[in-house]
Each structure stands twice: as C-alpha cells, then as structure tokens.
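[job 4471] stage=fold_predict status=RUNNING
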Amino acid sequence: MRLMTAIIVAAALPLFAAETTQQGWIADWLIGGPFPSYQVNDGRTGLDTDHLDGEEAFRPFPGLQQSALFKADQAKLIAQVGSTNEWGFTEDRTFPVLWKELHAERPEKIELDGFFAPIDDYFAYYAACWLESPETQKVKFRLGSDDDHKLYVNGKQIGRVATSQGIVPDNFIYAGELKRGINRLLLKVVDRTGGTGFCVALSDDQNQPLAGLRVYTDDPRRKIGADAWDNGFAARFEFVSPELFT
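[job 4471] inference complete, writing structure tokens
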C-alpha cells in the first residue's frame, strides 16, 4: 500500500500590489485587444463571441501575445469606396494582441481612445485584474462602460449589458462575492463607434467603498509558482509516495 504525503512549503513573499482607492476604484488593469465585433443584421457580435476560447476561465498575463483576424467580405463591397468590412479594409488583416499593464490616473473614467489604433470602432477588448480579499465577503461591483460589457468574477458571469452609452460611474451595479484570498476579475467591453473606456469600483454590502484592497495585474500565484495564496503567504505542495508497508 502506498500513502500519498504532501510536503507543504510556505513563505511570505513580497510582491508589488496596487490598492483600490478611497472611493473603491480599481486603477490598475491588464488590457488585451482589439478583437473584431462584426455587424450582423444591425447587431454587434463582439459581446457574445468568445475571442479567448473560454473567456470565463481565461488567465492572461503581462506580455501574453495573441493575434486577431479582421475578415473582409467581398459580398459587402461598397460601390466606389472599396470597403468590404466595418474598418474600411478590402482584404483580411491580422493584428497582434499584446496584453499590457495599465495604470489609470483617473480610474473613475478610464478612456482608451486610440489605445488599439488603427482599430477605433467595432471591436472588443478585455480588462483583467486580481483582487486579494482578507476574508470572504459580499460586495457590489459598480461599473461604467462605453459601450456593451460582460463581467466575470472567478469564472462566473455576474453582469451583462448590450447597450450603447458613455462611461458613467455607477451606471451598472452587480451583487457578487469575493472569496478569501485571490479573486480574478475579467471585464469584456465592446466599442460600437466613437470613444471607448470603462470604470469599476467596489463597495461592501452596506454600500461603503472597499478601499485598500490589494490589486494585481498578474496572478501572484503564477508569478512565484505557488499553489495557494492567503493574506500575503504563498504555499507550494509537493507530493511523495513513501512505502507504508514493505
């Protein structure tokens, strides 16, 4: 008979973390895009197209490189203009997608006009961060977005809006939960036309801002190869199979 034994190595490892502001705003994000949002039957497809092959479980990291294909469609040829898609291209074009860290000086209105040039209309992008909560707690996520959005927390979709509007703080409020330890947020935003951007703040269940929560733009467990993380302590598990009987 063999007995699996776990050897636990734990350590307090200093990692840089930002914090939510006094008003609960998240200023530090990991941004990835652009991805196409085609117009089909006067609707924008970007919100419900999964560009990450499992966006609810996707775990990006700074420097991650992907690509996005913006397809041309000869059936959409506009006479005397030569455009065959929403962006004025006559041929398929592939653009690099590099996940970049962003610190916003005005987290209550994060404007990303020109951030994804030359694409400036009809596209989707993602914003991710990891929040460290000292305890399991009920929270409210207060959002604004230009335009449509989806919000995932720890792989669960807790909010979805398919409307066009500017960035208005607290325009959309979703009830959710942060577990003790590390929590992954992934926000998907679709730009229709004009500018784009978003904002996210957190409050407790008494509507008081959650200030001072640690915010990471990379999963701290990934950075140090840890299997678990709790209040600044990381742990790694190693399993061995000693002979119980010989």
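[job 4471] summary: The chain has one domain: 5-68+100-240.
[job 4471] exit 0
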